[in-house]
Amino acid sequence: MTSSCEPTAQVCADYRRDGAVLLRGVLTPHEVRRLAEGIEHNLAHPSTLAMVASAPDDPGRFVEDFCTWQQNPAYREILCESALPAVSARLTGSREIRLYHDHLLVKEAGTRQPTPWHQDQPYYNVSGRQNVSFWIPVDPVPLTSSLRFVAGSHAGTWYMPRTFRDQQARWFPDGSLAELPAIDANPAQFRQLCWALEPGDALALHMLTLHASSGVGPGARRRVFSARYLGDDMRHAPRPWRTSPPFPGLTDRLADGAVMDDPLFPRVWSAA
């Protein structure tokens, strides 16, 4: 990792306090081109986990896919050979970083479908605090279609995960976790963060940070790749339901509370 993209002590402190930071130029121009190639390959060859997350009458299209890095050399290069693993170690204060998974998020031009407020970790099969996700666009992203964050919302409360389009509780039983506060109805009550991005920039967020985004305008695509990493204290947390994404057979190989030491989650960085 070059010194130009190494997070400063202040950026790391901001990440711990707010649960989200902007990183300028974390990928090189070559890496941005490779990532764009990987995204187009993914769109042309979706996995069985791929989904269209927008309504049939949406003038655009919101496409998601998960866990395709093993079949996508460009993704593998970015996830394992770019600055991202070392940046993950710095932000999380970890001596070892494992890849968790990749997530494709493409909103084609004119997509109305918003991404509602949510946390990521309640959908997952992991526990622990030392984690980071990177939200990496290969297209310019204006403030109007960028991610918005509630600063400090990663501090402890887990909110009920629901499906994005119909708000169904398919994971934790209804009533077992707190319901989301009415953030958009009371915006002055929440300190929100939002940044415009250029290709090569990334947003780093904790897996418990509340975040949301709007649709995109008619003139531009918003192709985003999300890379998720696990630090020192992250452990396997099996669920009795299908997590998003699912990892079939993992409970046969890893015990509850085990380190995520499995070929699905390779170690991509360790302290010398």
Short description:
With 272 residues, this protein is of the alpha+beta class. The chain contains five helices and 14 strands.
Attribute tags:
Jelly Rolls, 272 residues, single chain
Overall number of structural domains: 1
Which parts are unreliable, with pLDDT below 50 for 5 consecutive residues or more? none
In the CATH hierarchy, what is the class? Answer: Mainly Beta
Structural class: alpha+beta
Q: Helix and strand layout, with pairings?
A:
Elements: H1 9-18, E1 20-23, H2 29-44, E2 51-52, E3 62-66, H3 73-81, H4 84-92, E4 96-107, E5 115-118, E6 126-127, E7 131-137, E8 148-150, E9 192-194, E10 202-205, E11 211-213, E12 222-230, E13 235-236, H5 250-253, E14 267-270
Antiparallel strand pairs: 1-10, 2-3, 3-4, 4-12, 4-14, 5-11, 6-13, 7-10, 7-12, 8-9, 8-11
Helix pairs in contact: 2-3
Could you characterize the architecture of this molecule?
This protein has a single domain, classed as q2cbj1_9rhob like domain (Jelly Rolls). It has helices at residues 9-18, 29-44, 73-81, 84-92, 250-253; strands spanning 20-23, 51-52, 62-66, 96-107, 115-118, 126-127, 131-137, 148-150, 192-194, 202-205, 211-213, 222-230, 235-236, 267-270. It is an alpha+beta fold. The mean pLDDT is 95. The chain is built from five helices and 14 strands.
